[in-house]
């Protein structure tokens, strides 16, 4: 199995820090930036607000 790992052409590891920054910049930073799932977004917003009020 270890030999198979060495022979892999592609891995899931991100070695390039520039690539990691690009991927990070593609992700939404706020719930409002997510497209669709309005009901789920609203529920998450309620949960997050409640947790902040409890200082969790």
From TrEMBL:
Skewed-composition ranges (Basic and acidic residues): 1-10
Entry-linked InterPro entries: RuvB-like_N
**The keyword Transferase appears for this protein:** no
GO biological process assignments: DNA recombination; DNA repair
Keywords associated with the record: ATP-binding, Helicase, Hydrolase, Nucleotide-binding
Q: Which GO molecular function entries does the Swiss-Prot or TrEMBL record give?
A: ATP binding; four-way junction helicase activity; hydrolase activity
The region called Disordered is annotated at: 1-22
Q: Which residues form the RuvB-like AAA+ ATPase domain?
A: 26-56
Its EC number is 3.6.1.-
What this protein is called in its record is Holliday junction DNA helicase RuvB
Protein source organism: Lacticaseibacillus paracasei subsp. paracasei Lpp123
